[in-house]
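Each record in this resource describes a single protein on a pair of labelled lines. An example record follows, reproduced without changes.
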Amino acid sequence: MTREHLTITVDELNALIAARDAAFAERDALRGELRVTKAERDLVKEQLKLMMRKLFGASSEKRDARQGDLFLNEAEQLAPTPATQPAQEDRPEIEVAAHKRKKGGRRPLDAALPREVVRYELPADQLVCPHDGSELVEIGVEVSEQLDIVPQQIRVIRHERVKYACKVCDRTLKVAPAPLRIIAKGLFTEAALAWIILSKFMDALPLYRIAALLRRFGGDISRNTLAACVIRVGQAVQPVINLMRDVLLESDVGHGDETNVQVLKEPGRAAQSKSAVWVQMNGVGPPPVRLFSYAPGHHVEHGDKLWVGMREGAALMSDGGPVYDLIAKKNALVHLGCWSHARRYFVEAQEVLPKEARAMHQPSTQFLHLIGKLYAAEARARKAPHRCARLRRRYSRVVLGQIKDLLDQHLETTLPSGKLGQALGYLGNQWPKLMRYVENEAWPICNNACENSIRPFVVGRKNWLFSDTVAGAKASLNLYSLIETCKANDIDIYRYLVDLFKALPYAKVADDYEALLPWKLGTPARKPTV
């Protein structure tokens, strides 16, 4: 081949170079598509693993012992086997060097419970000694106890108001006055109202089950009657709720959270619309207050008014919802972030990893290890509150610095759409609020206390599903507020409600209502004594 045949023009050379560059670009594009496809595939795998864990896996946080396992026969699971069956009698104490311990056995019944004594004696013809014929005398008793339960007893209280008239003339007639009632001419006594309210809002029984329960014991009461009474009582306690709100707004720390509720008959809204229950609690100093409030939605215009009046500079603890950023800014509150929420993202990131890959070199495991150190420090601080500020300053700040270094190391190099990327993104966005709690020893590390207050409402919602009207929802949340505040103050809820319902009709001025607050009117809950 001659040199003339190898000669090409400049234009032909440029065309060859352009074709080569186009081929390289197409190759890079295909590689990019493959990389994106692999990333998307990994993301789908993560989501599938997480969904399977939520359906069939154990929770990483403490379960509520009252909820149990929906698919577990507790009688079979918890019943002792012959090998573990405790003895009927209490076991004696065993003394060893340096300490004293008791053998395992049945726990004694509460000494404060009323007792009915049943004596078992031998007949007179058996009280003779078989050896010498002498009469046998009593030298003591062997005691065993059983727990007896008396089912609900329904009775009727007949009120008779005596009428008086003058024997001489017929112009004077007097009738003994009737006591005031929380529901004028109401069907139920204060004790019955307290029982109905606790059955619904504490034991999570819907009203139709309460009506069926009453019917079994002779009380043929319709569900509509029960509903009307609950709503009227919930509306009557509003002055007490208002005073509880005043106490909450005077606190140095407030917690906020919200959940969904459905109201069927709300003007201007479809029955399928989701409304909101806003939950508030104070976090510093007695007395503890828990408040549940109804709103048509989760937007800032609904939640902001609940915090109006909280003193400037107080702290607001919440999750990472942007609505709380606006609430804190509008009310000049110090916004604190919740470390439990941040931790949950890393738990999810760890759970999608293969078990053999969950080692300390994994970023999610490293973050969980460091967050665990923060909570360990808080546990030590609770045992010695006077050391809290020092512990946070000298220990927790160092751990926070280690978490920040680890965050900076992985944030820019991790795919944002993956579970680890989501955890890092949440941690990075919330970081200024998450590290703020160490500045004040009274500020909490997380919002768990507020979430725990919501749990009874969520459990009840699974049974009664929705509210019929807005008035019913507001009245119900007032009663939830009283019950949860009594729990927080360790008050006998039933006794308090009975006393409140009796005294409320006689309250006229602010001081009268203030005397009805749970921590003033209530009596301490009875604790078992052994």
Remarks:
- Residues 399 and 465 are 44 Å apart (CA to CA).
- Residues 339-446 form one domain.
- The chain has a mean pLDDT of 84.
